[in-house]
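Quick question: what would this complex look like in 3D?
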Amino acid sequence: MIIAITGTPGTGKSELGKELARRNHNVIFLSGFIRENGLLGEYEPETGSCDVETEELDRALAGYVRSSETYYAEGHLSHFLTCSAAIVLRCSPEVLAGRLEARGYSQEKVRENVQAEVLDVILCEAGSPGTSVYELDSTSHTVEELADSVQEIADGKTENYLPGKTDWTGDIDRWF
Ligand SMILES: Nc1ncnc2c1ncn2[C@@H]1O[C@H](COP(=O)(O)OP(=O)(O)O)[C@@H](O)[C@H]1O
Ligand SMILES: [Mg+2]
């Protein structure tokens, strides 16, 4: 079983993935997995990144995972993969902008990503038949707390994490 850990860049997927790995869970860091398996497509000048074929990645993952175990697949494309559940990390616009600025993103790129976060883009993309979707807010929760929440979700205690609790639209004027 694969559980996707997804979210807008800067919401904390990789940090959460590292914490889950520290707790001895199986974690697949997709950017590394894609590179190591030669799945990186051609460079796209328009987006400044390389395309990855979701179907190819899906096939490679199917060959990698053992069906009896649970894997967390971390990355902003993970919710497009065949997964039992998608955990969408969220972060308030203000805090997200600060994290992306600290990463050296251009103002344009910060804005683009914050707009996507305000518009729930990944949350909407993640919802598909057969995939349960949950939200975790990383704005004011430590990675340890988030990892505890992931454990609760995996244990079926999902009521606190059902989507719909996050609403960043109060901040909309600043970012559009
Ligand atoms: N739960 C958290 N609380 C506070 N800061 C966090 C948290 N998770 C991540 N960060 C910080 O946010 C930034 C982006 O985190 P990262 O895990 O790289 O995001 P992503 O993989 O989603 O792009 C990093 O500087 C990290 O230290
Ligand atoms: Mg990351």
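Answer marked as accepted. The beta strands are 2-7, 26-29, 40-44, 49-52, 71-74, 85-90, 132-137.
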